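Moderator note: this is an archived Q&A kept for reference. The question asked for a predicted structure of one protein chain; the sequence and the answer are reproduced below.
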Amino acid sequence: MPKQKSIFSGVLFLAVFVSLCAAISESEIQRLAQVMNWKAGQVIADIGAGEGEIGFAAATAIGESGKVYLTELDEDKVAALQKDANRRKLKNVVILAASEKETKLPDNCCDAIILRRVYHHLTAPTEMDASLLRSLRPGGLLAVIEFAPRKSLSASDPVKGVPSNRGGHGIPKKILVEEITKAGFKLDKSFDDWPDDGYCVLFRKP
């Protein structure tokens, strides 16, 4: 019995750990807004928006003269985001169903795009990087928040279908930068002191 309890506790810890890794704090959102310089009238997209915390915060920052796109792959998540946006009475928010290879955003629509802990899940990064580039306006900013591969997550929650060079659950910053700049983006800034042992890299569309 003690052994079974120990195993259960370990599984529970990993589940909580994964959940915490996915959560985002208000302070992280504020920092993201600062480094990306969110302002009234901008058009911002959050790819793989999850619960929508970033997008809903951005919608308040950019005001009614701006627009925020929130995208998700899962139909249930799309429906949940739409319901939440309606509840919040956010008229400047558009919810879209994305695909594995395309953002599904209009071309040249965005001043800024955000991917928070999403990039390492991409099964077709080359195609998605090209789609991200098309979706941004010239001079537009792409923010990618990620973390280096973690042994605990790699063992408990392996990511399926992604390129083999990821090295586990996560992605090395060097590989991320190489892939995104190869797509045509220019490296702008990099922050290695991001919350939860993560990093944030900013790219611009020429």
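Archived answer notes: The chain is about 40% helix and 25% strand.
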